[in-house]
Amino acid sequence: MENTHASTEKMEGREEKDLPGIENTEEADLYIDPVKEKKLLAKLDLAFTPVIMLVYLSCFLDRSNIGNVKVAGILTDIHATDTQFSTAVSIFYATYVCFETPFAILMKKLTPRLLLVILCTVWSLCTIFTGFIHNVAGLYATRLILGLCEAGLFPTLNLYLTMIYRRDEQAKRVAYLFSCAALSGAFGGLLAYVLLKMDGVAGVAGWRWVYIIEGIFSMLVGVTVWFGLPTDPGNAWFLTVEEKEMMKLRRSEEFSWEEIRIEFRDPKLYLSGLIQFMQDILLYGFSTFLPSILKAMKYNTLQSNYLTIPVYIWGAIFFLSVSWISDRWSLRGPVLLFANIFGIIGYILLLTVKDNGVKYFATYLLTMAVYTGPGLNLTWLNVNVAPHYRRATAIGFQQTIANTAGIVAGQIYRASPYTLGNSFSLGAIVLSQFLIVAMIAYLKRENRVKDRIQEKVARGEADTRKVKTGDRETGFKYHI
User: Considering only CA atoms, which of 408, 344, 342, 339 is closest in space to residue 380?
Assistant: First the structure.
């Protein structure tokens, strides 16, 4: 259940198959040839990962481009104040938060491909229409609709990954998603730099072209999703019969309300949600307001956009690197603690140093924590909750808690030089460190409890716990 290289799994109630890569035993255990499974994983990565990354890049691009256009004159053109802009940033998360958990739970009942395509199409149109707004009410409306559509995207994509990969394979794939959040910043900065040069073309302001072109791009991504992501990845057209049988070993579960009730009583869920809330204050504040932070350093509009590009690229590289280490050693909490140290140093530099060159260097330190924190913490919850519907509930509710941070981020980054926003973010990341330590301590304690129960059962004593399935099984060891 846990290891690619030790893949002995139970298939209950299923006919035995005489397949070359799968050996049957008398106990109906199925052994997957590690070499064949490695080949299967490579095929899955090649087929699904580029599409999943592309759709998440598109999503985050359409969400965060409001930061790029702020420095390009949108407030003047729609007659909005800085306070109204902050409200526009925040209200995105009103609908986003409300619909995340329902989408996460319904994903397996609905057709994932159809759901993703509908969401992608609607938010693409919404992005295009944002290029034609003329007042702040129009901006509010488009942000609310965008939040509604994007609410279902990350939980759906994340759970889609759990339908494909085992728990020890997931951190690297979730890292791909969060690296796309960083890359969308780099791509968005580059695209904004180019499109803002179109200012005045056909009588249209440059910031309007940013929304129109990025919306069209997202529409094309929706087409890619329809043709690139099958409804059931385990029965994808490019898999052989043997590979489809291997995929069946990875998941088999019916919907159960009891699993949802069990998860809502799980302390891990609430600790993880609080950590994610703190880390998302950094993520949403930094990714939305970085161009404004740079402009406060006296860079012009175009410089404030293109100088974000190397910062975001560095964030993606660092995140992918530490995620590989996290997967390699099955360590989540200690890696999170390490990455956050750079963020703490970065915020201290922004708040205390006057030299703009040093402040710009600080943004590179910040991005090491900004994307690593939310990405690894989500993976940490992912690998420590099972089975599917328990995990679906955990992911959806954790994200519901965490994404209220977007409302906070919009309100704390109000006025240059953003001392309040940076100070608040520094406090959030420090508090996150304490919560991460608490989570590590709790998981270690739970693993020790499981060890003691195994010893009791070995002596013939009964396991008296009410819940003994999924991640509560004594053989299911929590990743620290």
Answer: 339
As to burial, measured by CB atoms within 10 angstroms (0-12 exposed, 13-18 middle, 19+ buried), residue 18 is: exposed
CA 96 – CA 94 distance, rounded (Å): 5
Amino acid identity of residue 55, one-letter, is V
Residue whose C-alpha is closest to residue 409's, from 80, 93, 76: 93
- Name the strand (E) or helix (H) holding 98: helix 82-106
Q: Which element (helix H / strand E) includes 30?
A: strand 29-32
Structure tokens at 352: 């205390």
List the chain residues with pLDDT less than 50. 1-20, 22-29
**Residue in 327, 254, 287 with CA at minimum distance from that of residue 413:** 287
Q: Cβ(87)–Cβ(409) under 8 Å?
A: no
Judged on CB neighbours under 10 Å (0-12, 13-18, 19+), 230 is middle
Q: What is the pLDDT of residue 6?
A: 40
Q: Which long-range contacts (CB under 8 A, 24 or more apart) does 293-302 make?
A: 293/350, 293/363, 293/417, 293/418, 294/360, 294/363, 295/71, 295/416, 296/416, 296/417, 296/418, 297/356, 297/359, 297/360, 298/356, 301/71, 301/72, 301/73, 301/196, 302/193, 302/196, 302/197
Q: State whether residue 469 is helix, strand or coil.
A: coil
Predicted pLDDT at 2: 39
Q: What is the largest CA-CA distance in the chain?
A: 81
Bond from prior residue into 20 cis (ω within 30 degrees of 0) = no
What single letter denotes the amino acid at residue 205? Answer: A
- Does the model's pTM come out above 0.70? yes
Helix (H) or strand (E) holding 279: helix 267-296
Q: Which residues of 63-76 are buried (b: 16+ CB within 10 A; e: fewer)?
A: bbbbbbbbbbbbbe
CA distance 429 to 116: 33
d(CA 150, CA 116): 10
